[in-house]
């Protein structure tokens, strides 16, 4: 029996969005298109997927049982598309990678050297972004790949793979601050000092810290502000080692520095070419 990818995607997105209207907005289609696609899938399956008596979408018992299988089919379709593209060898003219500053520069340099050797005719663009900004760049199609710290939740259209390479972040303060002379500190000791905090362009999910805060959209700007003595900041350790000019002190706080797991992510709605697929393979097999 044949189930159209469109009806399967409409079902999964409806579950994720909680409504047909939400699924329509997420997929860029009309609500009636989503409703018809789900109804068509129900007709082919021979049972209802959602309760129709509630104002909100609720899965039937049958719907709950088939949801995992439908997700597997969609994932298998994506893998088949990837394999077909590899076989066709239709190399894309441009690769855009959005990366978090938590991605260590040394690993990035090696990746680009290998990419330049293998895909010398492919244009490469690197965008620096964090968290919600990387997600928005992928959803909009502005970037094909994103390298990001592991997120607790991702939109259903995004696919992720874990990296063996990790990042580390520490809390830093300019060397001439009196706190830098103390052997041990707690976070309470920082309450009277201005915090320099990352603030992404996308406002969704931003959590403001208590007390006086200055913010910037990149860690390199926060590093510069910390060097000028404007406050303390959570910064990628590799960045301070590379660009800090020994002007910042890593504060001796319990639990810091912290290890950050990294993921490579991309949108399942945008077909990836061989160069992007090669980059994913390189990133997921690289070691610290």
From TrEMBL:
Source organism superkingdom: Bacteria
Domain (HTH lysR-type): residue spans on this chain: 1-60
Keyword Transcription found: yes
PROSITE patterns: HTH_LYSR
Entry's transmembrane regions: none
Sorted UniProt keywords: DNA-binding, Transcription, Transcription regulation
GO MF: DNA-binding transcription factor activity; transcription cis-regulatory region binding
InterPro entries assigned: LysR_HTH_N, LysR_subst-bd, WH-like_DNA-bd_sf, WH_DNA-bd_sf
SUPFAM superfamilies recorded: Periplasmic binding protein-like II, Winged helix' DNA-binding domain
Protein's UniProt keywords contain DNA-binding: yes
Record family assignment: Belongs to the LysR transcriptional regulatory family.
Full protein name: DNA-binding transcriptional regulator, LysR family
